[in-house]
Amino acid sequence: MIDRFQYREDREAYSAARVKALEALLIKKGIITDKTVDTVLDFFETKMGPFNGAKIVARAWVDPSFKDRLVADTPAAIAELNLPEGMAGAEGEHMRAVANSPNVHNLIICTLCSCYPWPVLGLPPYWYKDPTFRSRAAREPRAVLNEFGLPVPEAIEIKVWDSSAQIRWFVVPERPVGTEGMTEAELEALVTPEAMMGVAIAKAA
Amino acid sequence: MKLQHYLGGLEGLGPVSTETRVFVETWETRIFGIHTAMMALSSQLPLPRTSSTFTTVWTWADLRKGAESLNPFDYFKFRYYEKWLGGISGYFIYNGYITAKELDALTEEYYNDPSKSVPAAGDAAIDDRVVQYLVEGDSPKRDTNVSFDFAVGDFVSIKNVPSIEHTRLPGFLRNKNGTVETVYDGAYVYLCDTGTDGIGAAMPVYCIRFEPEDLWPGNAEKNFSLYADLYAHYLEAPAAASAKQAA
């Protein structure tokens, strides 16, 4: 019997020690500094992240002409907003937004790896990277969305976007009903990464 | 073929994960940071040189090549960042930056004493370059004149190119037909030359719409469509495809 599907009992502790050893060696050899990894992580907490996507979506909700421009030329529309430096940066060099409507629901996938628009969504969550999601969303998106708790009626067309070249996609969900009196900042708080990938819709809190 | 190139549409997999965390273990944040730093310090980028001793190329393509070259059973055995840790460690060893022996020995030390900290050292210019990469990215768009063989609305056939190490052509689209939805402006390269697979030099990229009933006859859901961005090399006119079949 081969041990192909056995893991070390101390799987996580071992990986933690190994990655720490790797980081330590890279610092010692002058490849990176002792601050490099924290610098990267800090960038994702403050500059690149779903907070940018939420701002873009909230603006699209309050300004339909911005939404049209966003779908027509995503980078140009994003450039209109006062977002942090880096909004055209790594993994966001070529982004395209697709908007949900009463007739269309969009879903973003990457069947080959985990391509994801870092500047507007941050880093991809586990479900997006999971081989089961990547396989099944391509053929049975409605069944998959049901498992996320999002039933999509058959009358609504689902468009699935597989990120197989350089475009990084994100979804502009529909503005939830009951949010008419809300400010743009209040609306931002309703936008989740899941809604911007199409496995959820935005809901009034 | 590699099973990992043919993920789209596999059956019998059971429920999806709905885990919304990005990292499920703290150690995963560290390998993510290392990978991003390597992309930023990679030698092909037109960024200021620093004192970093990293002198080779590391892009997404290198990470993907590593994962796609795994035995398929290992690919599905290891969790996402476990594959990263294996691939990245292997790269540093293979390129002579570190030795397997010193990595194993130091792993043992940190395993026995997880509170032991990493050494303090480094030149701030290295971190400046990492941030500069994050801000500027690494656009694959090139200012090259290319010819566009297809226009919006054209029916196209997808080739079944011989992909060995790495491909950007999902397996479930091979030998299928689709319709051009978008012709992207300009020409695009890929992060590496994929060899017999055929992408490397700047070429057009098209967004192609597929009908699920054509992809999985009798076994697809109703009222949805699938779109994929594909490099021009993966496309041909349906006539060329049928001529090849007849030959």
UniProtKB/TrEMBL annotation, chain A:
SUPFAM superfamilies: Nitrile hydratase alpha chain (SSF56209). Keywords: Iron, Lyase, Metal-binding, Plasmid. Residues 15-200 form the Nitrile hydratase alpha/Thiocyanate hydrolase gamma domain. Fe(3+) binds at residues 110, 113-115. InterPro entries: CN_Hdrase_a/SCN_Hdrase_g_sf, CN_Hdrtase_a/SCN_Hdrlase_g, CN_Hdrtase_asu/SCN_Hdrlase_gsu, Nitrile_hydratase_asu. One of its GO terms (molecular function) is transition metal ion binding. It catalyses: an aliphatic primary amide = an aliphatic nitrile + H2O. Gene3D superfamilies: Nitrile hydratase alpha /Thiocyanate hydrolase gamma (3.90.330.10). Its EC number is 4.2.1.84. It is an enzyme of class 4 (lyase). Belongs to the nitrile hydratase subunit alpha family. This is nitrile hydratase. The lineage of its organism: Bacteria, Pseudomonadati, Pseudomonadota, Alphaproteobacteria, Hyphomicrobiales.
UniProtKB/TrEMBL annotation, chain B:
Gene3D superfamilies: 2.30.30.50, Nitrile hydratase, beta subunit (1.10.472.20). Residues 139-236 form the Nitrile hydratase beta subunit domain. Its EC number is 4.2.1.84. It catalyses: an aliphatic primary amide = an aliphatic nitrile + H2O. GO terms for molecular function: nitrile hydratase activity; transition metal ion binding. Signal peptide: none annotated. It comes from Rhizobium sullae. Keywords: Lyase, Plasmid. NCBIfam families: nitrile_beta. Belongs to the nitrile hydratase subunit beta family. NHase catalyzes the hydration of various nitrile compounds to the corresponding amides. Residues 1-121 form the Nitrile hydratase beta subunit-like N-terminal domain. This is nitrile hydratase. The lineage of its organism: Bacteria, Pseudomonadati, Pseudomonadota, Alphaproteobacteria, Hyphomicrobiales. The keyword Cell cycle does not apply. InterPro entries: CN_hydtase_beta-like_N, CN_hydtase_beta_C, CN_hydtase_beta_dom_C, Elect_transpt_acc-like_dom_sf, Nitrile_hydratase_bsu. The keyword Lyase applies.
